[in-house]
Design a protein that fits this description.
- The complex is a heterodimer.
- Chain A contains 11 helices and 5 strands.
- By secondary structure, chain A is mainly α.
- In chain B, strands 2-1-3-4 form a 4-stranded mixed β-sheet, sandwiched between helices.
- By secondary structure, chain B is α+β, with helices and mostly antiparallel strands.
- Chain B has one domain: Glutaredoxin.
- Chain B has 4 helices and 4 strands, in the order βααβββαα.
- In chain B, α2 crosses α3.
- The chains are: A mainly alpha, B alpha+beta.
- Chains A and B meet through α6 and α9 of A and α4 of B.
Chain lengths: 473, 110
């Protein structure tokens, strides 16, 4: 593995010794202007001349990933940073458990690894494209900054995946890197790979749901790749997880602030709709939509692909290296999967390796439940009776064993007629979308917030809420 | 069985100093078990007990400590290392469901 010295003097800041590999440096410098062009065309619309208080990674050590300054977004220094390598790293799961981890791609795993990296990489620019117009309706400068921070870091995550493609996959990898900039979210001819990344993110309610639930899928996918026996992938994703945590916190706090604002208004007897705030039933429908779309990203609950990725040592279970699982080979055990049968449900034993996606989804559901409970504790403090809920993992699924069947948000199997009768109670309607859009007014005065969202408890990097997080050109 | 000690580094706990606390605890545990053969210290993104941070958990003992400061670390290490009784003043601050979700995630049947 390369030495982890940080080089901030080259056009591409890095800790992977790009200077020492001229061919790679040239290839990435060739890709860089294409990336900047993509950013200008598909990144945040109309704010490239403004200065944004952004955190830029200048290293992976303590404090190195959190250097704050006002910068114009096209001047943001997207770098390539891998987490500090571990001495004598061993593969700790699957068929190769105990073997030395790989610094190069084993030939027989090349195609599968490339697909994993491309699929992960594709989500990064996709989310930037989905969110590109939101700056125009930011509820505050604080939130506008958060949006641009998320966007810039998703761009850096794309760089991390492109680095792996260039270094380890030759001309195929370079072609894939170009394709990552050619696909477009929601485009009928060249869509992004995963469906949730083709959905429009038109409002800040969508954005906060996206960062809460869809970015959280990203956390679990990255966490499983961070266990990988292919060390460069593990080190790349370990550092990406540090930044991803901020994105999820943006969402979790964002929804929490919306819930709090609506709760406050209702407690004082004000109808949220009368003052441009968002009623609980709409918030719940958006959560139902984005949580269920995000659960689809985990893939089939019974998956031979997932079994093979685990067996090969490419993709582990959540926190596999912590040693919380009994058998690192995951052999000889079954996972009990509830599956539709006739008009009801039945339990099916799935060999554990084939249930890796299910295990990861279970961890995601527990994590998401924790967040929903946190919002509900705030409602309890506000003396509100209403509660937010997380839809069951069977609800509104387009992938896996529940796709094609009908379930209510509690996870009870229902008929298609019942679904049609209640669909608008459970998922956002056109009227919801139209109403939420009317709430989305731009607030650019420092320290002021739109009426549908509470201010945060504290500002970014210990700055006050009325700090000028964005300086307009 | 190896014990896992998790220090929350979620937003609220980090603002209360969990990053520094992690480093201090790491140094203390390294004195006892430098190769992590019995005690593994790890960061955890968020336990959900934010208002009672800094939070530290010990698995498989199912110990959930809250409101930890640097002054508590010697007692915590004592508890972890010597299986001394859990420190009651640091327990029971978060709601049971917050604890239960964490144990659900860690008590894997597999």
């Amino acid at each position: 593995m390369p030495h982890m010295e940080v080089d901030l003097d080259t056009r591409i800041p890095n800790n992977v010794n790009l200077k020492g590999d001229k061919r790679l440096l040239r290839a990435l410098e060739h890709w860089q202007p294409q990336f900047i062009e993509w950013w200008k065309e598909m990144g945040p619309s109309d704010f490239n001349a403004d200065s944004v208080y952004l955190r830029t990674a200048v290293g992976v050590g303590k404090g190195g990933w959190a250097h704050f300054d006002h910068v114009k977004m096209p001047d943001y220094r997207w770098g390539i940073f891998l987490a500090e390598p571990t001495d004598d790293r061993k593969i700790h799961f699957g068929d190769h458990v105990g073997d030395q981890a790989w610094d190069q791609v084993p030939g027989e795993m090349r195609n599968r690894l490339r697909r994993l990296i491309v699929t992960q990489g594709d989500t990064e620019p996709a989310s930037v494209e989905q969110q590109r117009l939101l700056g125009h309706t930011a509820p505050s400068l604080y939130d506008m900054r958060s949006l641009f921070q998320v966007n810039a870091e998703e761009g850096r995550h794309l760089w991390a995946m492109v680095y792996l493609l260039h270094v380890f996959f030759g001309s195929d990898g370079r072609d894939e890197a170009e394709e990552l900039l050619a696909r477009r979210s929601g485009n009928a001819d060249k869509p992004r790979i995963l469906e949730a990344f083709n959905q429009p993110v038109e409002t800040w309610l969508d954005f906060f749901c996206f960062t809460t639930f869809t970015d959280r899928d990203g956390k679990y996918q990255l966490a499983s790749l961070a266990e990988s026996g292919f060390s460069p992938l593990a080190y790349s994703t370990q550092f990406m997880l540090t930044e991803e945590a901020y994105h999820m916190q943006t969402g979790e706090n964002g929804i929490g602030r919306i819930v709090h604002r609506t709760g406050e208004l209702m407690r004082e007897g004000t109808d949220p709709r009368k003052v441009g705030a968002i009623p609980f039933d709409i918030i719940q429908r958006y959560i139902n939509f984005w949580a269920s779309m995000s659960m689809d990203l985990f893939g089939g609950e019974d998956s031979t692909n997932a079994a093979e990725a685990f067996a090969m040592g490419l993709k582990g279970r959540y926190r596999e290296s912590d040693g919380i699982y009994k058998d690192p080979k995951a052999l000889g055990q079954n996972y009990k999967l509830s599956v539709p049968k006739n008009g009801g449900m039945t339990e099916q034993d799935v060999p554990l390796r084939r249930a890796m996606n299910s295990l990861l989804l279970d961890a995601y559901v527990a994590d998401s439940t924790r967040i929903v409970n946190r919002w509900n504790r705030d409602l309890e403090r506000l003396d509100m009776d209403v509660r937010i809920s997380l839809p069951d993992k069977k609800f509104h699924r387009g992938q896996g064993v529940y796709a094609g069947y009908w379930f209510n948000p509690a996870g009870e199997r229902i008929t298609e007629e019942e679904w049609n009768a209640h669909r608008d109670d459970w998922l956002p309607t056109e009227a919801d979308s139209a109403y939420v859009k009317t709430c989305m007014i731009s607030v650019r005065e420092p320290g002021k917030f739109a009426n549908w969202i509470s201010p945060p408890h504290q500002g970014t990097n210990e700055q006050p809420n009325d700090f000028d997080y964005v300086r307009f050109h | 069985m190896t014990k896992l000690v998790y220090v929350c580094d979620g937003g609220d706990c980090a603002e209360k100093g969990s990053v520094e606390l992690f480093e201090t605890l790491r140094a203390k545990l390294a004195e006892i078990d430098p190769k992590e053969q019995r005690l593994r210290l790890r960061k955890y993104p968020c336990f959900g007990g934010c208002e009672h941070g800094i939070n530290i958990t010990v698995w498989p003992d199912r110990v959930f400590y809250s409101k930890i400061t640097a002054n508590d670390l010697d007692d915590v290490v004592d508890n972890i290392e010597r299986d001394a009784p859990r420190i009651e003043r640091l327990c029971g601050h978060v709601k049971p469901d917050v604890e239960e979700i964490l144990w659900q995630m860690l008590d894997s049947p597999y």
